[in-house]
DNA sequence: GCAATTTATTGAACATTGTTTTATTTGTCA
DNA sequence: TGACAAATAAAACAATGTTCAATAAATTGC
């Protein structure tokens, strides 16, 4: 038995999160079970439930951490690129790279999870980072079209980023079922290129859906 | 006990598929279990496994049926709209409507499933319909830009449709976790509008990703 | 019409999960 | 040192997917 006080609760949380990452990194198709995580951290399930409300709680915290990293990377990229247009391309590349380079983690992140915990602190934290990512794009779009209505730009940013997300999802899904698939980077590049062309071209025009 | 030969195997398959739809229609968050499906069809689990290889097999067949319906609807819409541009808008609306009007079915469809069955007939059927949907869009894009390279258009169509898919995914996910969310129809309209502007505006220009 | 056989269907059984509870070990402090 | 508290393990439970032996119904051969 591991001697008690070998790890603080915070350390145990870290151990668990790391164990989850180890599992999905070693095999993107691996299913994460409470017992596999516990074994990975050198504890038993009971300890896991001492520190997390349930498995979803743990996975949510993993996602939160992944999102933090992703957001951090995106911020670096945003800093080091030339203009708003280039920045958006680089941000998109960054997003795709995450999905392609860490398929297990990406699956974790994009996996739909039932909301067993109510509105939770951690959950909100993850959602807030997602929101931050949208804002990052929104900022660059604003630089591209400073005169345009900010609400309109918010919508444009969300549309664009959800779109990029969609391409990653579809590509990952094709990967998963071993189907032929188009290169995600190419698709995303096409999307961003075309979308930005349209964004710049459009004059002030009604964006409301007809009927 | 239900008298044997009350239903043919094909009928039992239909019963099962219908039972699944009933479950997700009655509660989009409901988890589909072998036993709940069996109860819904008036049989027990054993019968289910007489007719399907496993649960995934059943769900895959449900998805195939859903995709057939969706594709049928999209075809009708494509027939009854004015020009290629309008058609694409209508196709997108059709897709969003499916996701919004039948959230349970949409979740079923967009749920990632491990590939427990190998390359299977039903699985290929579903994948083929997805491919057909892409082709539908591709056809309209070709009408919009008849001179453009067909490979390029194929990519553009996949990028566009994956993007629309992504918006539906993100919106549904927000719905699920009861978060504030932007209206999917508005986002999709913005996306299609902007994307088509860019698509029409772009001259023959390199679409290859830099570096 | 009745026994034998086949077969559809069930219900029990199994393994694996998430989760809770109980038992045990270990550290701490009076 | 011994009682208490906390950490950890181990066992227990319920719900799942899945399999399988038992059973009841239909069919067949006579």
SSE blueprint:
2 copies of one chain form a homodimer.
Chain A lengths: L8 H18 L7 H8 L3 H7 L3 H25 L4 H18 L1 H8 L10 H24 L5 H27 L7 H18 L10
Chain A binds a DNA duplex (30 and 30 nucleotides) through helix 3.
Q: Can you describe this structure?
A:
The structure is a homodimer of 211-residue chains. The first copy, chain A, folds into two domains: 1-52, Arc Repressor Mutant, subunit A (Orthogonal Bundle), CATH 1.10.10; 54-201, Tetracycline Repressor, domain 2 (Orthogonal Bundle). The first copy, chain A, has nine helices and no strands. The first copy, chain A, has helices at 9-26, 34-41, 45-51, 55-79, 84-101, 103-110, 121-144, 150-176, 184-201. In chain A, α1 crosses α2 (34-41) and α7 crosses α8. The first copy, chain A, is elongated, with a radius of gyration of 20 Å. The interface between A and B is large, with 52 and 53 residues. Chain A binds a DNA duplex (30 and 30 nucleotides) through residues 1-6, 31, 33-35, 43-47, 49-50, 54-55.
Defining key terms:
homodimer, 211 residues, Arc Repressor Mutant, subunit A, Tetracycline Repressor, domain 2, 0% strand, DNA-binding
């Amino acid at each position: 038995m591991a001697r008690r006080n070998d790890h603080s609760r915070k350390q145990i949380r870290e151990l668990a999160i790391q164990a989850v990452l180890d599992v999905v990194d070693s095999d993107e198709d691996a299913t994460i079970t409470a017992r596999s995580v516990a074994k990975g951290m050198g504890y038993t399930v009971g300890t896991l439930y001492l520190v997390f409300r349930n498995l979803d709680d743990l996975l949510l915290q993993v996602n939160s951490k992944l999102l933090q990293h992703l957001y951090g990377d995106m911020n670096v990229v945003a800093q080091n690129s030339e203009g708003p247009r280039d920045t958006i391309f680089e941000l998109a590349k960054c997003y795709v790279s995450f999905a392609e380079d860490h398929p297990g983690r990406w699956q974790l992140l994009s996996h739909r999870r039932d909301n067993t915990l109510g509105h939770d602190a951690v959950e909100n934290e993850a959602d807030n980072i997602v929101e931050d990512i949208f804002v990052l794009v929104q900022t660059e779009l604003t630089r591209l079209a400073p005169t345009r209505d900010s609400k309109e730009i918010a919508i444009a940013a969300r549309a664009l980023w959800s779109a990029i997300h969609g391409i990653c999802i579809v590509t990952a899904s094709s990967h998963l079922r071993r189907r032929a698939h188009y290169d995600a980077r190419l698709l995303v590049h096409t999307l961003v290129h075309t979308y930005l062309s349209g964004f710049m071209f459009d004059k002030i025009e009604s964006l409301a859906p007809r009927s």
